[in-house]
Write a structure and sequence with these properties.
rod-shaped, mainly alpha, 0% strand
């Protein structure tokens, strides 16, 4: 029997939203963590189906993408001399 759960649907939606980590890394990481938590809660309630699994996978991908983009942004800022400009103005 395939049950539908609001938590599984929320996990899927937040997993999809977590993929915006390409543009906004912190939002991707936060949404990814919440998606994973909701997917685990849905699994404990006995929800079966693709929504829960997809939410879990997309949440993990969102966290990884968010972390990678955070590192890339830090490297770009460090290499551009932007941090030197900020420190010289202080």
């Amino acid at each position: 029997m395939n049950q539908s759960s609001g938590k599984a649907t929320a996990a899927l939606v937040l997993g999809i939203i977590s993929l915006i980590g390409i543009c906004i890394p912190i939002a991707g990481i936060i949404c990814g963590i919440v998606a994973i938590v909701l997917a685990m809660m849905a699994k404990k309630e006995g929800t079966t189906g693709g929504k829960q699994t997809a939410g879990l996978v997309l949440g993990i991908i969102g966290i990884v993408v968010g972390i990678i983009m955070w590192i890339v942004n830090a490297i770009i800022l460090a290499g551009s001399g932007f941090m030197d400009i900020i420190q010289s103005n202080m």
